[in-house]
Specification:
binds (3R,4S,5R)-3,4,5-trihydroxycyclohex-1-ENE-1-carboxylic acid, binds magnesium ion, 7 helices, amino-acid biosynthesis, ATP-binding, globular, nucleotide-binding, metal-binding, binds adenosine-5'-triphosphate, Shikimate kinase, alpha/beta
């Protein structure tokens, strides 16, 4: 099976849903944010404090390259992974990309109590999330093979729909081999 990448904004469920979806598909699960924290021994908040966003993005690109070199794994990316063209190309080239489309109002609700996301340490979260959505949503769209709009209700139903879509993708015939050369 090809790698599966989950993309989408903060709070779209890449981590939460990704782990369970991987289990259902029988794939290993990796979360690029968690791998970065394990490797550095520092929280994402601390990395942003010390190295700034640019430092974090460098680390993120390196980890994504490392994870993409594995085969048949499901990877939850960070919300800003799509910002770099280099990352978008990598994801497209090495797997199926699933976009968890999520409106800002839902992000606000899901992340109400969260303090672990450095980009949300701001008095006006709604404004910040709207700005990020304007910049990033077209990039998520660009890189996506499958798009799943957020829905209310049990997370299990979303996991099941994504599972079914991925199973169908896998059973679809791949590009046919090129025909043998014909003689004039
Ligand atoms: N489909 C969903 N339905 C209900 N709650 C959800 C859903 N997806 C995520 N949540 C909740 O939203 C919170 C954030 O989700 P999660 O950490 O999985 O987001 P993420 O996409 O990994 O964000 P980030 O880009 O910041 O890593 C969690 O508390 C999770 O339980
Ligand atoms: O949307 C973002 O830019 C981020 C999302 C998280 O997954 C982390 O990668 C980090 O908090 C930055
Ligand atoms: Mg996450």
């Amino acid at each position: 099976m090809r790698n599966v990448y989950l993309v989408g904004p903060m709070g779209s469920g890449k981590t939460t849903l990704g782990r369970r979806l991987a289990g259902k598909l029988g794939l290993e699960f990796h979360d690029s944010d968690h791998v970065i924290e394990e490797r550095t021994g520092a929280s994402i908040n601390l990395i942003f404090d010390i190295e700034g966003e640019a430092g974090f993005r460098e680390r993120e690109s390196k980890i994504l390259e490392e994870l993409a070199a594995m085969q048949g794994v499901l990877i939850a990316t960070g919300g800003g992974a799509v910002l770099a063209r280099r990352n978008r190309d990598l994801l497209k080239r090495t797997g199926i990309v699933v976009y968890l489309e999520t409106p800002v109002r839902q992000q606000l609700r899901r992340l109400r109590r969260d303090r672990s996301r450095p980009l949300l340490q701001t008095p006006d979260r709604a404004q910040k999330l709207e700005e990020m959505a304007a910049q990033r949503n077209p990039l998520y769209e660009e890189v996506a093979d499958l798009v799943f709009p957020a829905r209310s209700g049990p997370i299990d139903r979303t996991i099941h729909s994504i599972y079914e879509a991925l199973k169908n993708q896998q059973s679809e015939p791949q590009d046919p081999p090129s025909p043998p050369p014909t003689r004039e």
